Write the structure tokens for this entry.
Amino acid sequence: MPAKPPLLTAQSTAQLQALGMQLRARRKALRVSSTAAAEAAGMSRVTLHRIEKGEPSVAAGAWANAMAALGMSLVA
């Protein structure tokens, strides 16, 4: 069962959703299946799907692994 998401501001929620959409768009542009991307990132396909939806309860390390698997980097 997924962890309960932390309380977020509307801006933070929008930023996570936008980042998830960018991740999904990158994966699609590379023509990589969600299963292959998840395996490359060392996570389940369900976790990758939750990241692409922008769910805040996913660990930051999982976000970083997913981005690295797709050749992306997180810059604050």
User: Anything to note?
Assistant: The first helix runs from residue 10 to 29.
